[in-house]
Amino acid sequence: MEKQKPIILTGDRPTGSLHLGHYVGSLKNRVEMQNDYKQFVLIADMQALTDNAENPGKVCDNVFEVTMDYLAVGIDPRKTNIVLQSKLHDIAELFMIYSNLVSVARVERNPTVKQEIKQKGLERELPLGFFSYPVSQAADITAFKASFVPVGQDQLPMIEISNEIVRRFNRVYNCDVLKECQAVVPKVGRLPGVDGKAKMSKSLGNAIYLKSTEKEIEQAVKMMFTDPTHLRVEDPGNIEGNVVFAYLDAFDPDVKAIEELKAQYQRGGLGDGVVKKRLREVLQELIAPIRAERSRLEKDRGEVARVIRAGTEAAQETVAETLQEVKAAMGIDYKAIW
Ligand code: TRP
Predict the structure, then answer these.
(1) How many CA atoms lie within 13 A of 82 on its CB side?
(2) CA 320, chain centre distance (Å)
(3) Whose alpha carbon is nearest atom 9 of ligand 1?
(4) How many CB atoms are closer than 10 A to CB 54?
């Protein structure tokens, strides 16, 4: 039965606990899709090392953090396998094989990698591992023969490279061992940071975390960027670039009420305080059960460890099978010797 379901592979680098940007960007999709698909969520600890080589301890610690976030938002280990990347050695081998099928120039054209290099100011100091992470990600995706990959918008160039590798592999070795996949991007665009910057991110320090306390949520909403020209309640206000409305769009289920609030805000006569109060309530309601489940899990690390172990073990066979097929297609399985 299980085998019939299309396969989803998705994942995160464990470099910090997850925030609302992750929630909107992929966690929500994963929770919704886990019923109809066979889902693997990869904790990409090896990929995390590509820009954290000096800090492996941080990566290890965050394997637990991220898993607790997954479980707390409703990723159900009975439906989804939570998988630790570094324990699947076959993926590393696939990466070595694929790295001969992609050019440096091709990876250099990847806009997300380009931007990350610039953001980190790496230039020629760029670690080789970091540069090649799109290829290692192709190994992740293809190892599972995933049909769908729920990711944020910024990951689309990775999917593109992955599918190119698949086509190249199948053509060069005249087979159809590898499967192309399709990205699943969220309907809501990316979530801005509380400061109004285009993206919510840990490194920009503008995130609301899934483990936030009530107080932290309150504080974040209080500081939140609205419309700097909206000085008095009776002034007309701007919706565009207004973070409070962006979050209401993303999290308030009552679409009609939000439309009315927006109209009133634009006409004038609606203060930021009222809109913020509504958002505060919406966020408290969203995060309260997540926080509660998370703090329960924090007291039971054994359970978290068991989930990771079971999920990883269940993935082992799938991945080994793919590597075996890949080697057979290439004729490097040395049947005459082993
Ligand atoms: N690159 C992804 C990120 O930074 C994480 C990731 C690693 C991933 N392997 C993957 C996502 C495979 C989807 C599929 O968020």
Answers:
(1) 29
(2) 25
(3) 137
(4) 8
- CA of 295: how far to CAs of 76, 83, 211, 298, in Å? 17, 22, 8, 5
Q: Say if residues 275 and 261 touch (Cβ distance below 8 Å).
A: yes
Domains, the chain: 7-191+301-330 (3.40.50.620), 214-296 (1.10.240.10)
List of residues 6+ apart from 70 with CB closer than 8 A: 18, 27, 41, 80, 82
Tokens matching residue 110? 């990847």
The tokens for 21 are 């940007």
pTM (2 decimals)? 0.93
What residues are in contact with ligand 1 under a 6 Å CB criterion? Answer: 9-13, 42, 44, 47, 137, 140-141, 149, 151, 155
Residue 166, both tokens: 């698949």
- Structure confidence by residue, pLDDT tens digits, 328-337: 999 999 999 9
Ligand 1 centroid vs 10 CA: distance in angstroms?
Answer: 6
pLDDT in tens, 292-324: 999 999 999 999 999 999 999 999 999 999 999
Which pLDDT band, with edges at 50, 70 and 90, does 121 fall under?
confident
